[in-house]
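Bumping with the actual sequence this time:
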Amino acid sequence: MQLQNLTTCPDLIPTIAQWHFGEWHALFPHKSVEDFAADLRESLQQDGLPQTWLLLDEQNQPAGTASLLLSDMTTNQDLSPWLANIYIHPLQRGKGLGKKVVQHVMNEARQRGLTTIYLFTEDQQAFYEKLGWELHHREFYENHWVAVMQYEFF
């Protein structure tokens, strides 16, 4: 498995947009599959944010994603940037790949000189806590309770 920037394989955006739509449409009910694709296309810049990385398997097929975004919620606009789009294809889950992609984005954030990054999750708070993330607050977002978490680089 290897991680590559989305800029190296933009032809995979339709597939990834469908994955993200299927996984998170309930949290973003106003977004269509095309909106998810448009968000991914914003990651096709060389520098700056947003950035998206793809986890590719041994046959160079997409197996997962991770992003670093300026904003990920309609609330909490004062918090930035955000770890987001942590997605591992169901056939690849249970192999430690989620940890791999999260740590990759955390390293990217550190290399960019960021001091704090945020994320939100419905049900993976314990997973992120094991990686050093702390609860910032909980809130009711799009009819779901979510944990907004932060990671501070020292």
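The tokens above came from a reply further down the thread. The chain is about 25% helix and 30% strand.
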